[in-house]
């Protein structure tokens, strides 16, 4: 069993259950899985990032596991409710980790099967102790493939586990190091979570396992991606009573996200 935060003893049973059924425990709008084959390709470095913020329409493909399973649906809700003239669609390609997703037949090719504006990549393996260096080649390949197709690539560093104040920064820095090898946007999810947890101690951001997000946590992550993808400020998002937070908490979410993204821009400046 690999040393990774998603395989801590608290979550082994949950993840095994997910793997028995649907590997990524669900998806945003649409989910696809296939059979694994070896990947022997090498990423093509050097391509610039295409900035698709401000697009007339948004087509978003998401590669990841259970931590990104609800992201597609939430992005569709947020973008369509705020940018009423924009058409929004998402597809989630599910697996446990990016190396397995890339080595599954047909998954990389899905980048070519629609006019995607954005591609989100979540599920990079990493070592909590720092004693193991996992390959980032697969993440780099996905980024390079997206850029060749004029798709804006966005790396998704997961939020920290409950009670681990250092993990969000650690995972964020890992993904920044990937972007240094193959230029990509990096959503500062862990930094947003750290600030929100400190500002809103009364709010539960986690599900019962202390690993996955609660509905409030999923919303915080989705609002962050809303600003990264559209370029519209999260602190201007209208409140929706259907979400599991108060209007005041919603305002604080938006303010925190916009502040963190001002301090840590997701995409390199051109």
TrEMBL record:
<keyword id="KW-0732">Signal</keyword>
<feature type="signal peptide">
    <location>
        <begin position="1"/>
        <end position="24"/>
    </location>
</feature>
<dbReference type="InterPro" id="IPR036514">
    <property type="entry name" value="SGNH_hydro_sf"/>
</dbReference>
<dbReference type="GO" id="GO:0016788">
    <property type="term" value="F:hydrolase activity, acting on ester bonds"/>
</dbReference>
<protein>
    <recommendedName>
        <fullName>SGNH/GDSL hydrolase family protein</fullName>
    </recommendedName>
</protein>
